[in-house]
Amino acid sequence: MRDEPGLTPTRESPHEPEVGGFQDVETPDESVLKTGTTTVGIATEGGVVIATDMRASLGGRFVANKGVQKVEQIHPTAALTLVGSVGGAQSFIRTLRAEASLYETRRGEAINIEALATLAGNFARGGPFRAIRPILGGVDDDGSHVYSLDPAGGVMADDYTVTGSGTQIATGVLETEYESGLSTDAAASLGARAVEAAAERDTGSGNGVYLATVTEEGVDIHGHTDFDEAT
Questions:
Q1: How far apart are CA 155 and CA 125, in angstroms?
Q2: 19 domain residue, yes or no
Q3: What is the pLDDT confidence band of residue 34, given thresholds at 50, 70 and 90?
Q4: Residues annotated as part of the active site
């Protein structure tokens, strides 16, 4: 069988096996703004503390912004971190805020943090979000809660957790210094020290720390360009 000009070549016989090929794989777009990041969440008896660094990078090679707030209030008594693609994380936060509000309007009651974490996990698994792995921290009638979420929709609760490119370094600090019964102030200092340690070695983390304190009274977020002020 002869191939006509401009047409895709065909097999000689429809009964012969067709040889497949390899599809071109897109290389990561290094122009995408990423947080890189170290984020820490610690649950205490009085609330939750979330600590994050303040650096955004392009392709992990260039510091694009030195003052990114990587933790946002998503509920009167809950906050979520930004990890991974900045655009994907911001879109995720907007969606989660809206859906949590809709949940409460439909049911006529406040959403508890476990349900909020499940909702967030469902969105992470099925939504168009770029490689995010945030921490959710919140307070409800059952106490203080910290959850880490992965892009596949996994939701893991713990007393403390770390996500981002500085995870290994920050986790070492927490493993060494964390103890049950920490006060909120002590947890904030520990979280800041963990982020500071990561910033010393991880190129995706640095430029200061944001601290969010979540209690039954609300969410308080402050940024510190000097780690000494936060610790």
A1: 10
A2: no
A3: low
A4: 37
